Amino acid sequence: MGSLLLAVIYLIFISLGLPDSLLGSGWPKMQVAFNVPSSYAGYVSMTISFMTIISALLSPKIIKRFHTKWIVIVSIFLTILGLLGFSVSTQYWMLFVIAIPYGLGAGAIDASVNHYVANHYSGAAMNFLHCFYGVGAVISPYIMALALDRARWNEGYRWTAFLQTGILLVCIISLPLWKKSESDSDDEAIKDSAGIRETLKVSGVILTLIAFFAYCAGEATCFLWTPSYFAGTRQGLSDGLIASFGSLIFGGLMIGRLISGFISNKLGDRLLIRIGIAVELLGIIMVFIPDMHYIFTAIGFVVIGTGMGPVYPAIQHMAPTNFGKRYSAAAIGLQMASAYVGSTFMPMVFGVLQQLVGIAIMPFYLLIFAILNISMLEMAYRQIALR
To answer: Domain range holding 337?
Structure first.
């Protein structure tokens, strides 16, 4: 039964990834339909992220009060409402209203399922879980592309909502599996879980929040600015080739998490993170090295993504071990909020910096956050050992 439930959980994370790529892939047409500047996508994205941060911060109280299975059901339902709302929006301002359930659903399901897997499954399961998030994020741009080819951008959101509805039905049918995998001790541990204020006082928690912020700042900067880096530092590349470079980091993340899924149980989370960040630093060095063409630099970005791959899942999976089950729900919720703050604001900070000094500073920017990430984690390990 545990394996069957894990398969359902992987499907849930596919559903979590599905909405995340739609705005970017559909915005060129949405922008025309709403008659707004291209930059206005950022405001919608920030609204979704803001609601996700709120949801992540509320997740400890939600997890304490409701079972994970019900949080999953309600969260997927909220994302379906968001997707359908986007599909019927005719004015730009409507997107901000719809972004509320859209973001709330994503944050609650992310924190609750990560907490559940961290407490009930191995590090391998956590890495594979985040691989399946990537599957969802890869599928949705193709859904939007098909909609733009056959119909309109609205249909991309509507078809994704239909797919989410199918996943929701599977989750409803699988509700008995959750009951069989839960014990009375699990319920008692959840009811006894600590709040955010109490958890912030635990040794190592704040340092891991800074580490999570740093990790997601680097990851999101790569997602947004990698094509622009090639456009600004290489001459003569076609628009199509430049656009394709946006998948380099994402592909690396998938590779890193897939490999980590097979070796994480043997190496352990801490060693896996250290190896991952070492690989990330190697990739950054490769980007630093002058390359007359682009192949070596492109490989460097894939290596960066591969190194980043195990870091996010491993930090989440360590929470019960590092801080105890009493604090794990709040710690993971805080980590999710910190992650979304980093991924929301730091790519924008880089955008301002690159306008002032040039896009070539990108590897320096990534290096700062990689060093901050590993240094904060190592300091956290020392604090935890002294507790």
So the answer is: 199-386
